[in-house]
Design goal:
CBS-domain, elongated, three-stranded mixed beta sheet, MgtE N-terminal fold, Tetracycline Repressor, domain 2, about 65% helix, mainly alpha, membrane (chains A, B), homodimer, about 5% strand, about 450 residues
Chain lengths: ~450, ~450
């Protein structure tokens, strides 16, 4: 395999094949991996997707559908297929992938698909559908290798080979007792290395990390990443083995959580699809902008409040925008560092306190340096040292407020159990706008009038 | 294993044990996993870290050091240890982990450590040190399972067991010819399932995905994530097998890249350590703030330029802050969505064009809605319909500029090969500040005077 990425040449080659007859298209598709075809699907029409799925063998077709990005709506593609083809594909999918896709459908559509499946498949998928999407239960696959701890080496290997027939890939062998109680894991390597008459119970690693079905997906991701696991067993409240979450699901979770963080911090609703249309984008962003408009009125009310300084406003207005803008940017910096730190580490109270103290110091210094630059400018350009001093004090004060709010608000939110990324730059810059104007105009009315 | 996380009870239990004698401490440490001790290290003194490392058996000690976060500086801990203990630990580390840690040291310190190692270990680490840290070569581990494609099933299993003695974990078996040329991979499962006299060459998957040593780490991460691989083979220009990059390295790469994105977009240098002190934070952020100060002067120069409207400024100044602030936030929204989209997908030119077109539409609508709200406010509060119209037009125009620059600038940067996240909110909001003031004051001087 020479090329791993679907580059422009590949895309145009595939699109040309779509223009040709089925035979050419089928032959061209055979040169590509399912996940590459899934990428191609992002830039072709619904009709072409349907045609390609119908041309592929069922194994590849189900892989393509499993690999399609959520935002390309594999569930819609599934619905458009002929019922017989659809059932073949759903049967071929891993239970967790099938559940992810089916969960996006309306209830009556879900029912329609599940009715056509075998009772065993349907009930497995129904169980998975019952778990919250963002928990270990929602992420897990019920197809696992499970062997009894009383098996001998030879029987265990036979059993693993038998069970693995239906699985694409497995990384760990789960060990259970006669009641399916989870007893630990054992690696295939250790089984092979064991002596001929050894029993599994002698090789099992009983200290294996596992999670409950209701464990939050972020926690699952953290464990897999911390312990470098390829998969993690999922158990119920009675320690019965339910399934496993694999590392590749966790990579997707991490990417999703990171998208959420970066969007929320920028005042975009977390559910805006990155490649969605303008209607969705307006729906997602307009509410935040209207909140921002409310806070902007608040800031402008401060300006209106300072009637006594009205004669100074033409002079001060150029500086107001500098102080408010600098405060907003300093607050965004502190916010980004703090939100990212919270999402990667658990901070103790003492660490949180020191983080705010650090941002206070950073604000003080950055404010004083920038304030001094503006002071010098005001002295030479507007010929007023006192004006310069007012601006210096307002700048320094506002940057300190930026540091404290930019770090303190997300830390407090985390402490009271709210997602800290919701403290978006829109919320934080309200503080720096309001306090920036208050400081500048308040100090000006005391010192310049 | 009941608790997987180092919660407050664990931390205080461990800290209490640190207060006690070595025997108690050692016994307490035995209850914890190496990666948990590495977390503990984030909140204890250098002296305590050193004492703990000396108490642990060399295997656990090396695991703890390998698991320590880069920001906790494992290389400093290593330097403080007794040379004999240090060598034991370095010898126990995987080559890639040893290289990561040693690469953080000064050249003379690196030399000192490498001199004490065996020639084979030292030259392996020296080779790894020669690769750029952010490439497949810099990430890879040279310890891989490699078997000759002419081996039979039985010999292959013996060879795998022999080679895996020195490895903690392996996921794929690499197949090479007599000259170490990479020929593909084979799974342990397939070898076990094969008939007794089968040869490896019959089972090898020759289509396996691999990367060159100089492949960028982001590309490696993308391939591992796209093809759901536990590890990916690394080859040189002549297809000789050099090593492998594993999925857990990629999880770290993804987290680092995401931290970089969120920091850069917020105007923080990518190399600011999240838990660094205030001196580092000032160094990282002050340059950006001074750039922002320059751009803020630019915006305020616009205000100064409009001498003819000076009589209107007390009236307009409250609205100026609203228009500039709203534009800045709308631009940040468009920027976040675009940067995130670029980092997850490769956009075609046509998709890029449509993304900017979408943001134009979103800006038009969000601008018109918010502009209308302010128009109504201005009419009832300042009793001027014409003032309202000026504000409506300035708001709509500025939000359109926000959408175009917030999406267009990162896309253009990506196109010319510059990291799009550098188009931070600081750069983007310059446009919305300058154009917001230009539009408001320009329109006011035409329509209100």
């Amino acid at each position: 395999m020479q090329s791993f990425e679907l580059d422009k040449t590949d895309v145009s080659k595939l699109k040309q094949a779509i223009g040709g007859d089925n035979e050419l298209l089928k032959a061209t598709l055979e040169e590509y991996h399912a996940s590459e075809i899934a990428i191609l699907f992002e830039s072709i029409s619904k009709e072409d997707r349907q045609r390609i799925i119908n041309l592929l063998d069922v194994e590849t077709a189900s892989e393509v559908i499993a690999e399609m990005h959520e935002e390309s709506h594999p569930e819609e593609l599934l619905l458009q297929l002929h019922p017989e083809k659809r059932i073949e594909i759903v049967e071929e999918l891993d239970y967790d992938d099938a559940t992810d896709i089916i969960s996006q459908l309306e209830e009556h559509e879900q029912k329609e698909i599940l009715e056509d499946l075998s009772e065993h498949d349907a009930s497995s998928i129904r169980t998975l559908l019952s778990y919250d999407e963002e928990t270990a239960g929602g992420l897990m696959n019920t197809q696992v290798i499970r062997i009894n701890l009383n098996l001998t080496k030879k029987d265990a290997i036979d059993e693993i080979i038998r069970q693995s027939e239906e699985m694409e890939e497995f990384y760990t062998v789960n060990v259970v007792d006669d009641e399916n109680t989870f007893k630990g894991v054992v690696s295939l390597k250790d089984i092979i290395k064991a002596k001929g008459n050894a029993k599994i119970t002698e090789m099992v690693n009983a200290d294996a990390v596992y999670v409950k079905a209701e464990t939050d997906q972020e926690e699952v991701a953290r464990l897999i990443s911390q312990y470098n696991l390829t998969s993690i067993p999922v158990v119920d409240d009675h320690m019965k083995l339910l399934g496993r979450v694999t590392f590749d699901d966790v990579i997707d979770v991490l990417e999703d959580e990171n998208t959420e963080d970066i969007l929320k911090i920028s005042g975009v609703s977390e559910d805006e699809e990155l490649s969605g249309n303008w209607i969705e984008a307006v729906k997602s962003r307009l509410p935040w902008l209207i909140i921002n408009l409310g806070t902007a009125f608040l800031a402008s009310a401060v300006i209106r409040h300072f009637d006594p300084t009205i004669d100074l406003i033409p002079l001060l207005s150029a500086y107001m925008t500098i102080i408010a803008g600098m405060g907003g940017n300093a607050a965004t910096q502190a916010l980004a560092v703090t939100v990212r730190r919270i999402s990667l580490y658990d901070l103790t109270d003492n660490q949180a306190y020191r983080a705010v103290l650090k941002e206070f110091t950073v604000g003080l210094i950055n404010g004083a340096v920038n304030g001094l630059i503006v002071l010098v400018f005001a002295y030479f350009f507007d010929h007023s040292l006192m004006l310069g001093v007012v601006i210096f004090l307002a700048m320094t004060g506002n940057m300190i407020i930026a540091g404290i709010t930019g770090s303190g608000i997300p830390l407090i939110l985390k402490r009271i159990g709210i997602d800290p990324a919701i403290a978006s730059s829109i919320i934080i810059t309200t503080f720096t706008d309001v306090f920036g104007f208050l400081l500048l105009l308040g100090l000006a009315s005391k010192l310049l009038l």
